[in-house]
Amino acid sequence: MTFLRRVLAEPRYGFEKDGRLVVPSHREIFREFLYTLNIFRTRKNWLALLGWSLSLSLAIPLAIFLTKYFSWPLFIAGFIYSMVFMGSHGTLWLHRYSTHRAYRFKYAWFRELTRNLVIKVIPEEIYVVSHHVHHRYSEKPGDPYNIHGGWLYCFLADATHQGINRNLDEKDYATACKLMEHTGVHLNSYAQYQKWGTLCHPGYTVMHYALNWGFWFGAFYLLGGMPFAIAIFGMAGVWAIGVRTYNYDGHGRGKDRRREGSDFNREDFSVNQAWPGIVASEWHNNHHLYPRSARCGFLPSQPDMVWGFIRTARALGLVDSCRDSKPEFYRDHYLPYLEAKKAKVAATESRTEPTLNLS
Which of 17, 54, 61, 146 is deepest in the core (most CB within 10 A)? Predict the structure, then answer.
């Protein structure tokens, strides 16, 4: 069994049986979800509980905003912040840097600034380690958010399938830490891991989130008063819950929705979608085709704000290096597709051309 196959804690119903994906019932998934959040059963459940507590706690400012402070300008501001700023930051920080190291920071202070550019909701550990597994076993048994398990299987995956194995030996634990060491997250010693069951330490993690939320609430309060701060935090909660549906949608909801001329990766059902691409620079099929590219919007119709941020930071000397797979995409996929399409059209036209009767 490879490291990526054993690094995550398997749910009690398992990832596979006889080489086939185990598709649990909704009841089994809910039972596993509550089991992994139960801090009274074991303190090693603290990170899954923290992740959902952060998201659900944002329902409080959302309810206050909707019942006390609602206005269309505030709603629009909150919507743009959550969809564009938080969505793009997820792509920039969690996806392209923390998981795939598609670019490299020159200074630690700029890395920390980038890490905290928005209200933080998703702990790095929950995302990064499991996302490596997702790419290695995409849509196969072991994929923590396998679309063939169904919508709920994906929606609750951060708690049920994405936690790391609590029984790693010291060598495997050191390997898991290497997946995270560049992110700036304070990592546990092996003895601390055996106590807490995670790579990150609860004290440092909770302190980090408290400082991040405190800073941003204060900043938004100074910018627009209590209504503005409440609106932004409330709408951040909408994103925090909604983003859990993304991988299911981004892989065609279990069906092959790939389109000719747009989705060139044929290894899985990932698709390029206009909405997440425009608001969060997440062109998912392109990303699965070139996961380590800092640019994923390859075609003129695929804007990539995140790439613009990375390229600007590099021009300012704040980013050391970055990968851009656009030339390879055109060379290996798009230009051959255009040539094949052109040849097909020419062949069709030649077959339909009328012949002259000279008799």
Answer: 146
First-to-final CA distance of the chain = 75
Distances in Å between the Cα of 12 and the Cα atoms of 26, 45, 146, 161, 171 are 14, 15, 16, 10, 25
* CA distance linking residue 146 with residue 240, whole number of Å: 20
Q: For residue 103, what are the β-bridge partners?
A: 322
Helix axes 26-37, 46-57, angle to 10 degrees: 100
**Up-side HSE of residue 32: CA atoms within 13 Å toward CB?**
24
CA dist 99 and 131 (Å) reads 7
Q: Indicate the helix (H) or strand (E) that contains 349.
A: helix 335-352
Task: Report how far residue 152's alpha carbon sits from residue 195's, in angstroms, rounded to the nearest whole number.
Answer: 30
Which residues make Cβ contacts (< 8 Å) with residue 105, sequence separation at least 6? Answer: 97, 111, 114, 318, 319, 320
- Determine if residue 18 is left, alpha or beta; phi over 0 gives left, psi from -120 to 50 gives alpha, anything else beta: left
Q: Are strands 20-21 and 16-17 parallel, antiparallel or unpaired?
A: antiparallel
CB atoms within 10 A of CB 163: 25
Three-state SS at 304:
coil
Q: What is the pLDDT along the chain (359 residues), one digit of tens a residue?
A: 799 999 999 999 999 999 899 999 999 999 999 999 999 999 999 999 999 999 999 999 999 999 999 999 999 999 999 999 999 999 999 999 999 999 999 999 999 999 999 999 999 999 999 999 999 999 999 999 999 999 999 999 999 999 999 999 999 999 999 999 999 999 999 999 999 999 999 999 999 999 999 999 999 999 999 999 999 999 999 999 999 999 999 999 989 999 999 999 999 999 999 999 999 999 999 999 999 999 999 999 999 999 999 999 999 999 999 999 999 999 999 999 999 999 988 887 777 665 545 55
